[in-house]
Structures are given as structure tokens and as C-alpha cells.
Amino acid sequence: MRTLGLLLAVTAVLAGCASRSPGGADTAAPGGSASGTASVAASAPASAGTPAASPRSVQPVPTVSLPTGLPKTREPEPPTDDFPQVTTRGRIRVEGQCVDLVTDSVTWTLLGPDAAKLRDGQQVKVVGVPNPEARTVCTGSPLTPQTVTPV
Prior knowledge:
Blueprint: H1 2-18, E1 86-95, E2 98-102, E3 107-110, H2 113-116, E4 123-130, E5 141-150
Parallel strand pairs: 3-5
Antiparallel strand pairs: 1-2, 1-4, 2-3, 4-5
């Protein structure tokens, strides 16, 4: 008996949903009885709407203007990062791809094409700029030589 009551309640709810028109007005279910079913009121009035926007309230769309011509560019310069130029003398040590300048106080790893021309054991004077941002597998402090002179 309890199941039959639940089934009738569910059927009544479904019949109420099926009898609603898309505009929100209730219509009578064909062959349905009004006894035992509750009418469902519309949740929002059908004629409710938003007021039309006045021409003054419309904001103009901003425009973007691009400059004509190409931007001015310069050739990139090697970074100096406020490091003073270094002048040092020492002996070249070549180990694998590393070309080191061994001095009395510091071992410099020489970078660039000038370093590739040096031979192991050669005594040289190097003028260059430290480059601590350079990534290398060598153990010396990176130095970008500007001039390399055999002594």
C-alpha cells in the first residue's frame, strides 16, 4: 500500500511537469483529474523583462592604433654587468673541451674562438671580461678574452 502511494505521488509530480507549457503557463493534462494534484505556480512572471538600454548608456568600443614603421633596434652587446676588464698572464692548460689560463691566484676558463686557437703549455697575456653567467663544465672562472698575446 505504501509503494502504491509513493508511485501515485511521483506520477502526480511528473504529470504536473508534463502539463506545463514552455511559456510557463499551466495546461490541463489530457484525461487527468484535478483531485489529489497540486497546481504548480509559475516561478517568474512571463512578461518580466529588462528595460531597453538608452543610447547614452552604450559605451563606445576603444580603438587601438599601431605605430607605423619598424621599431628601432640595436645589435646586442656582450654583457659586462659592471665587471672591470682583467689583464692577466699565465700558462694555458687544455683538458678536453676546457681551455684554462692558470695564474698564480686564479684559474680562468677562456671562452670563445680565441681560446680554441691556444695550445697546452703556452704562456700568454690575456685581456678580457669576466663572464660569471656563462654555463660551462669547466672548473675555472669564465673569462671572455678580448685579446690574447703570446709571451
